[in-house]
Amino acid sequence: MKNLQKALIAVIASSVMTMSAQAAISYGAGQSYVGAKVGQYNPDVDAVDLDDAVSYGVYGGYKFAPEIGIEAEYLTTSDEEVFNDAFEKLEYSADVYGLYATYDYAFPNTTLYAKGRLGIAKNELDLEYTDKEDSEFSADDSYSETGIAGGLGLGYNFTPMVSTEIMYNYYPSIDVEGDDFDASGITLGAHFKF
To answer: Which of 25, 96, 121, 189 allows an S-S link to 75, with CB 3.0 to 4.6 Å?
Structure first.
């Protein structure tokens, strides 16, 4: 290999490492961000086995310090069947509204970070019952609970302005006519910092 080629490879490699280091430390104080996420909403009910729903939503936040911030989130789900037979059908969907305090830990000399969040969220469940023989008996019911919610995840800074993160989330439990409706979820989000 010629000296010019070696020098060129060294310059490119050092440029990539410098950009990675800048991306790792650029997530600093006084920075806002907004993004979108998609994932899986996992309900857990003792009385019935429910399928997981596809979840999607938006989130945004503000960093008061490089590690500490605040984040708001809205998440909704697809309609999922509980049962569907010749005579009747029952579907559920959910919405989550949350406000969280966040803590980020940037792994040294990388663009990776760990994120934890803890706050308050409203978990809202909508049930739609359809009587296929007599629509007079069809009904829509909503149940909700506001309580402690949070999550843990990992993030990656692609550039100083664009990041992605995967998170495990847990939401408040809802009392549905004596049964506990517990819910958690996994989301993949991408956000833009400004």
So the answer is: 96
pLDDT bucket at 114, cuts 50 / 70 / 90: very high
How many C-alpha atoms does 117 have within 13 Å on its Cβ side?
32
Q: Which domain holds residue 100?
A: 3-193
Number of residues that make up the chain: 194
Distance in angstroms (rounded) separating the CA atoms of residues 69 and 51: 34
Number of folded domains that form the chain: 1
Tell me the whole-structure pTM to 2 decimals: 0.76
Residue 47 contacts by C-beta under 8 Å, 6 or more apart in sequence? Answer: 179
| pLDDT tens digits, one per residue of 26-42 | 456 688 999 999 999 99
Q: Across the chain, what does the average pLDDT equal?
A: 84
CATH number of the structural domain spanning residue 169: 2.40.160.20
Strand partners for 148:
120
Q: At 5, list the tokens.
A: 């080629």
* Closest by CA position to 123, among listed 164, 103, 93, 88: 93
Instruction: Give pLDDT tens digits for 171-190.
Output: 999 988 778 889 999 999 99
The whole-angstrom separation of Cα 54 and Cα 60 is: 20
